[in-house]
Automatic annotation (TrEMBL):
PROSITE patterns with a match to the protein in the record: SIGMA54_INTERACT_1, SIGMA54_INTERACT_2, SIGMA54_INTERACT_3, SIGMA54_INTERACT_4
UniProt entry tagged with the keyword DNA-binding: yes
Organism: Blastochloris viridis (Rhodopseudomonas viridis)
Identification of the protein by name: Nif-specific regulatory protein
Keyword annotations from UniProtKB, A to Z: Activator, ATP-binding, DNA-binding, Nitrogen fixation, Nucleotide-binding, Transcription, Transcription regulation, Two-component regulatory system
Length: 588
């Protein structure tokens, strides 16, 4: 019996009810019904599953699978008739890897009349596709394309019972038509997904801008705070203090751990002050040796030293009528502290190699992450300089005390990363929960590092929970802090004395029988509600005692017994202290 290309009869419900129906009519009806399914507004997996269910009724087939590839060529979506959430593995097991690979690589349909005799099907493939039956299985696979690129495959298998009549060429043409429709639908879904991701990113960007506007609302002085992201009570408290402090000319000392954003707050003080129209000059005192630091701050005359070919203004001159920010003030040597003290007291100095006295009008803002009170007690820092720079001390909260700001900061860092790299990444809804549950000993700087690293390695347009290194036990920060804790636990732990009276040979601006307590105070002493015998902490209160407690725990590798020896208390008392201040115990 001779058949034309579209005259093969297929057993469908219509054919059974009314007799033989030409395949051309069946194919036309099938394409029409499939196009309606593909146009329905469902999840892509559900749509493709419905297509396979309908296709089963038009063709002699047992199983059919649609496989869509990810960017790396690995099957990402695998769907068959009756698909449900979590059933992908069942369909993946029936995918012949070599056969699928050839279809994708060549872009040409593959037909195997007997998979058991075909070299592209392994014994495992044959066993999986036979399903325990001793039968001859044939296979047809066609590529799914978007333009010229193969993005997946449409495959079917059928049992040869010796009676059915197959025309593989006709079947291949029909499946190719269906695959082309599927390719157009996949492209449309991907375009919609990209638009959705862009909208998500735009929403995050607008939320970030809104949070910045909230943080930058006009204050009582009419000046906006820029660059500071956060809306937590801790940040709002600091900003309220900055608004008050900025109106005066008093020196400000910013205290806090490394990575808390001291420079941003120093700039905020400048921008909210009457000196906002003047220059804001910054110097990292720890980054320069003493000889270079002197020239940087005070300037030098021509010929003052080798290489001084011209006279040069120092940072004090450049900051005239403005603000000078001295970061890491605790790192300068005692000899240079004396030179700096004169400038702060008299507002005058001489350039290196010069004799002319230069007067300046500069507001000083300094910053440190060191305990200057202990440095004064050890004669490492001059008491008179300490009093001069610490007129108004401000403690900047660590990130662990402002966890509600983590999503806002993460969004801000991701927007900055996108702008620098020309990308449009966004966080998935659950991704920010991962960041919010992290401890971040390195504070905001560590959070930014985490966001940038994750964004750099992200494969898709959305950062998910599983993209973060901590979900894969590859968090570099945990290795870093664990290593520091281990090193601290293996070396002798020196006893650091509590603040005592400043040395008698150092003259302070005002007589003081003993060094004042750290400027961060709490109304109730740490010993309140504790057993008797807690004297080492009575001189430290509030945030300062929390800072000292954290320092001891870090130095002891978070071993409470060792930390208790450093502080001169019992392990039971340090347990009370940790509980009182809400300090979680790190586990390594």
């Amino acid at each position: 019996m001779n058949h034309g290309p579209l005259d093969v009869l297929v057993p469908t419900s219509r054919a059974i009810a009314g007799g033989a129906v030409p395949f051309s009519e069946i194919a036309l009806t099938g394409v029409y019904e499939i196009s309606k399914i593909l146009a329905s507004p469902n999840r892509l997996e559900t749509t493709l599953s419905n297509v396979m269910g309908l296709l089963w009724s038009f063709m002699q087939m047992r199983h059919g699978i649609i496989s869509l590839l990810a960017d790396d060529g690995v099957p990402d979506i695998v769907v068959g008739a009756g698909w449900s959430e979590g059933s992908d593995a069942r369909y993946r097991a029936r995918l012949p890897e070599l056969a699928i690979g050839q279809i994708v690589a060549t872009g040409v349909p593959l037909v195997a009349q007997n998979i058991a005799a075909h070299p592209l099907f392994s014994e495992a493939d044959v066993a999986a596709m036979q399903g325990g039956e001793d039968a001859t299985v044939s296979f047809i696979g066609v590529p799914i394309r978007i333009g010229a690129k193969v993005v997946g495959t449409l495959t079917i298998d059928r049992i040869w019972d010796g009676k059915a009549v197959f025309r593989f060429d006709v079947d291949v043409r029909f499946l190719t038509m269906v695959a082309n429709l599927i390719g157009q639908t996949v492209q449309l879904h991907r375009v919609v997904a990209r638009d959705r991701d862009r909208l998500i990113a735009e929403t995050h960007r607008l939320q970030k801008q809104l949070s910045e506007f909230k943080a930058a609302e006009p204050t009582g002085s009419g000046v906006k705070v820029s660059g500071i992201v956060g809306d937590s009570p801790a940040i709002r408290s600091v900003l309220r203090k900055i608004e008050i402090v900025a109106k005066s000319q008093s020196p400000v000392l910013l205290r806090g751990e490394s990575g808390t954003g001291k420079e941003l707050f120093a700039r905020a003080i400048h921008e909210m002050s009457p000196r906002a129209d003047g220059p804001f000059i910054k110097v990292n005192c720890a980054a320069l040796p003493e000889s270079v630091l002197e020239s940087e701050l005070f300037g030098h005359e021509k010929g003052a030293f080798t290489g001084a070919l011209n006279a040069r203004k120092g940072r004090f001159e450049l900051a005239d009528k403005g603000t000078l920010f001295l970061d890491e003030i605790g790192e300068i040597s005692p000899a240079f502290q004396a030179k700096l003290l004169r400038v702060l007291q008299e507002s005058e100095f001489e350039r290196v190699g010069g004799t002319k006295t230069i007067k300046v009008d500069v507001r000083i803002v300094t910053a440190t992450n060191r305990n200057l009170e202990e440095a004064v007690a050890r004669n490492d820092f001059r008491a008179d300089l300490y009093y001069r720079i610490s007129v108004v001390p401000l403690l900047l909260p660590p990130l662990r005390d402002r966890k509600s700001d983590i999503p806002l900061l993460a969004d801000a860092f991701l927007v900055r990363f996108n702008g620098e790299n020309g990308r449009e990444l966004a966080f998935a809804p659950g991704a920010l929960e991962v960041l919010s549950n992290c401890y971040f000993p390195g504070n905001v700087r560590e959070l930014e590092n985490c966001v940038r690293r994750t964004a750099t390695l992200a494969h898709g347009p959305v950062i998910t929970r599983d993209d973060f290194a901590c979900r894969l036990d590859q968090c570099l920060s945990s290795v870093l802090w664990k290593g520091q804790a281990a090193a601290s636990a293996n070396r002798p732990l020196p006893e650091i004395p509590l603040p005592v009276a400043p040395p008698t040979q150092v003259r302070a601006p005002a007589p003081a029988p003993e060094l004042p307590r750290p400027p961060l105070a709490l109304e109730t002493p740490m010993t309140a509600g504790f057993p008797a015998g807690f004297p080492p902490f009575e001189a430290h209160r509030g945030a300062a005692e929390r800072e000292r407690l954290l320092d001891a725990m870090e130095r002891s590798g978070w071993v409470q017994a060792k930390a208790a020896r450093i502080l001169g208390i019992t392990p039971r008392q340090i347990g009370y202290a940790l509980k009182k201040h809400g300090i979680p115990i790190k586990r390594f």
